[in-house]
Design a protein that fits this description.
Elements: H1 2-7, E1 10-11, E2 17-25, E3 28-35, E4 39-46, E5 49-52, E6 65-71, E7 80-87, E8 94-100, H2 108-114, E9 120-130, E10 133-141, E11 147-155, E12 160-165, H3 180-189, E13 194-199, E14 215-217, E15 220-223, E16 230-235, E17 240-244, E18 255-260, E19 263-267, E20 270-271, H4 279-282, E21 287-292, E22 298-303, H5 316-325, E23 330-333, E24 342-345, E25 350-352, E26 373-378
Parallel strand pairs: 1-8
Antiparallel strand pairs: 2-3, 3-6, 4-5, 4-7, 7-8, 9-10, 10-11, 11-22, 12-26, 13-24, 13-26, 14-15, 14-18, 16-17, 16-18, 19-20, 19-23, 21-22, 21-23, 24-25
């Protein structure tokens, strides 16, 4: 199969090949091939061995960055590697590009600059959803002029607060899943005045649907009290907090609401050490993140992606920089991809503001069911 692909591959247009980078991690080299336009079904040939793209095998990612894991022992200085992939414009037309391996490995500081897509808002549409809750649609472009659509909720936490939405507004830790609008409806039926919502934690999509990190709902620890992952939470006194139990285990008894993410992307106003060498950080995806300003204002940011003509997603560097531009000093990355959504309360119901990637799937198109979400609710008894 691999040999057949290589033999019938035509030469790739040199302008389409943006370059290759090599990231050393133990005995493995991450070979990162960067392209100017989309190619699919990528393979990397090292001698007679074919390596399959680590990221484009299951979901429709941007197809501009292709990642391969190669044993360091297989690579020698100057040896020729061949990248082969399907042309996005012609079904079944394989193309290839051959380039030399060089042992000049990129460092973290260089990568942070390279994976800043320089997403810039060209114009903004703003609405006041409720007292103390502002919604913004950011019409952006990246450094290459490609479109990016981002959505920001700015929440005054002295007037409003956060509750964790769950399926049927319940306390099951696994085996349950629901869409964000279904979780909104369940919370409203329980008496919550929900103003807006975004998706929250990563969860076991292929197993029991359990959340990946800590979940606290109404003062009750629902899942993963021993999780080291960072979380966005609200303490029993109403104070919002971004932290982790690995750093502050004493917070567990103080939390009234909490949902976890995967990476701490901002700490004290600076990019945090969330591992810029990891491909998950620098491949552009639909993303959701939450941040806090020093005054306690909550920022919820969603960036649409995987829809090249509409929006091209964000890296974690992009998320951090965008939140920092709105004044956040601390932030975490939440679940993204097809999970990323923003809903706001309107006159007749709750409106989906984003274009979820799962609506553009080549097979089943859907609003994804998830384990939990972050509900922006009006403080009771004001």
């Amino acid at each position: 199969m691999s040999e057949t692909i290589l033999n019938r591959a035509e030469k790739m247009d040199a302008d389409d090949f943006a370059g290759a980078e090599y990231l050393l991690s133990g005995d493995t080299v991450k070979v990162v091939v960067r392209l100017e336009c989309a190619y699919f079904g990528a393979r990397l040939f090292v001698g007679e061995t074919a390596y399959v793209d680590a990221f484009n095998d299951r979901e429709p990612y941007d197809h501009l960055t292709h990642v391969f894991y190669v044993p360091r022992a297989e690579l020698t200085e100057g040896m020729l590697l061949t990248f082969a992939a399907l042309d996005s414009a012609v079904d079944g037309d394989w193309c290839r590009h051959t380039f030399p391996f060089t042992a000049q490995f990129a460092d973290a500081e260089t990568l942070l600059g390279q994976y800043d897509s320089r997403i810039t808002a060209e114009r903004t549409q703003a609405e006041q959803i409720a007292e103390g809750v502002t919604y913004r649609h950011l019409f952006c472009t990246d450094k290459n002029g490609a479109p990016v659509h981002a959505f920001l909720l700015q929440v005054d936490m002295t007037r409003n607060t956060v509750c964790i939405g769950t399926p049927a507004d319940g306390y099951e830790s696994r085996g349950v899943r629901a869409t964000v609008p279904a979780m909104i409806d369940a919370a409203v039926r329980s008496g919550q005045r929900v103003l807006a919502a975004v998706n929250a934690d990563f969860f076991d999509m292929w197993g029991d649907s359990s959340p990946s990190g800590l979940c606290v709902k109404n003062g009750r620890v629902v899942a993963n009290a021993d999780s080291a992952r960072p979380f966005i939470g609200v303490k029993r006194d109403g104070t919002p907090v971004i932290a982790s139990l690995a750093e502050k285990p004493e917070l567990l008894l103080e939390l009234y609401q909490a949902a976890a993410g995967l990476q701490r992307i901002l700490r004290g106003g600076e990019l945090d050490e969330w591992g810029p060498l990891e491909p998950f950080a620098y491949v552009r995806h639909p993303r959701t993140a939450v941040g806090l300003r020093p005054d306690g204002t909550l920022l919820c940011l969603e960036v649409d992606g995987r829809i090249p003509d509409y929006s091209n997603g964000a890296t974690l560097v992009d998320l951090a920089n965008m939140l920092r531009s709105f004044g956040a000093t601390d932030a975490i990355n939440l679940d993204g991809g097809g999970s990323s959504v923003v809903y706001t309360k309107g006159e007749t119901g709750y409106e989906l503001r984003t274009n979820p990637a799962d609506l553009y799937r080549p097979t089943e198109k859907l609003i994804r069911e998830e384990y939990n979400c972050i509900l922006i609710v009006e403080r009771q008894g004001r």
